[in-house]
Amino acid sequence: MAALLTCETDPLTGKTTLALVSDSELFAASFDQYAQFLNENQVVKTGSNAEMVKRLGENIKNAAQRWYTYIGEPNYLKDYKWEYNLVDDPQINAWCLPGGKIVVYTGILPVTENEDALATVMGHEVAHALLNHGKQRVSVGFLQELGLMAAGLAASLAGADENTQTLFLAALGIGATVGVALPFSRENESEADHYGLILMAIAGYNPEESVPFWGRMAAQGSRTPEFLSTHPDPTTRIKDLRDKSIPEAKRKAAKLHLDPLKKESILKAKKIAAEINNQ
Q1: So what's the pLDDT on residue 34?
Q2: 19-28: b or e for each residue (b if 16 or more CB lie within 10 Å)?
Q3: Looking at per-residue confidence, does 92 or 140 come out higher?
Q4: Sheet arrangement for strand 43-44
Q5: Which residues pair with 97 in a beta bridge?
Q6: What is the DSSP letter of 108?
Q7: 237, 214 contact by CB (below 8 A)
Q8: Residue-wise pLDDT tens digits, 5-40
Q9: Residue 99's CB: how many other CB atoms inside 10 A?
Q10: Catalytic residue among 25, 73, 83, 125
Q11: Is the dihedral of CA 217, 218, 223, 227 positive or negative?
């Protein structure tokens, strides 16, 4: 393999993880796959639900920019090209590709019931992207069976057969077909729960809504979605949310919004977000 074994440290968690592909390559491939997905599926472009998804996406994006500016990484998200779409599909699912490309399926809306609960979902999925869980999985794929070269990933996928493209999407957590299941690990899911709640709280949503939402998800019975394939046990998840994640999300959001020493950083975050929007 031409790629060198490399690692990178995540600014939110401080963890060092495997990174055999650059953001520029991964994002380019993700953007191409996202465009193809939208072309092949029914995008809901109007109506209150579509508007809610886009509004929520903007709020999550701004919260992420504010958070990274707060921790001294104001340019970390500069290559993200945020996009938020509602797709008409009965699956109880949502996902976010590396680089900020988000899809929410209409099938999850009866379970979320309200905007705060949907913020739980979108915060969770964006956290997967921010924490580079997809990049870690693609990197592991290079070492196992995907057979893609780290250099020229986008070009490789552009000419790849359907099976290879499906493997790539599965590595990023977008379902699993062709007999290959690549779910995120329980550690990844717990991280996405925790950091997703912080993100939604910074965006101004109520993290307390995560508890009844995950309860409703667990109660789907025979319709238990792929979304939950390797998620923590519902009882454990709700206990962790109540004991750890919700209190920390509230503390972090309050500190970020109210800390007078960070006022200049928050204003800078808003300025950077505006500049990105105008590109």
Answers
A1: 92
A2: bbbbbebbbb
A3: 92
A4: 43-44, 83-87, 101-105, 94-97
A5: 101
A6: G
A7: yes
A8: 477 888 898 887 766 677 888 888 889 889 999 999
A9: 22
A10: 125
A11: positive
Question: β-pairing, 7-9 with 16-18?
Answer: antiparallel
Alpha-carbon span 238 to 214, nearest angstrom: 7
In total, the chain counts a number of residues equal to 279
The pLDDT assigned to 267 comes to 57
- Model confidence band, residue 176 (pLDDT cutoffs 50, 70, 90): very low
Confidence class of residue 260 from pLDDT cuts 50, 70 and 90?
very low
Q: What is the mean pLDDT of residues 171-187?
A: 50
Specify the pLDDT at position 3.
41
Ranges 30-44, 183-197, 220-234, most confident: 30-44
Going from the C-alpha of 114 to that of each of 37, 210, 251, the distances in angstroms are: 26, 11, 23
The secondary structure of 11-73 as a DSSP string is TTT--EEE--S-HHHHHHHHHHHHHHHHHHS-EE-SSHHHHHHHHHHHHHHHHHHHHHHHTT-
Q: What residue type is 15 in one-letter code?
A: K
CA distances (Å), origin 79, targets 28, 60, 165, 266, 279: 10, 16, 23, 20, 11
Closest CA to 200 of 85, 45, 69, 64: 64
Burial 29-64 (b: 16+ CB within 10 A, else e): bbbbbbeebeeeeeebeeeeebebbbebbebbbbbb
Please indicate whether residue 248 is annotated as part of the active site: no
Q: According to DSSP H, which parts of 46-148 are helical?
A: 48-70, 109-112, 115-130, 133-143
Helix, strand, coil percentages in the chain from 3-state DSSP, rounded to 5 = 60, 10, 30
For tokens 């939950």, name the residue. Answer: 228
Measured in Å, how far apart are the chain's first and last C-alpha atoms?
36
**What average pLDDT does this structure show over 101-113?**
95
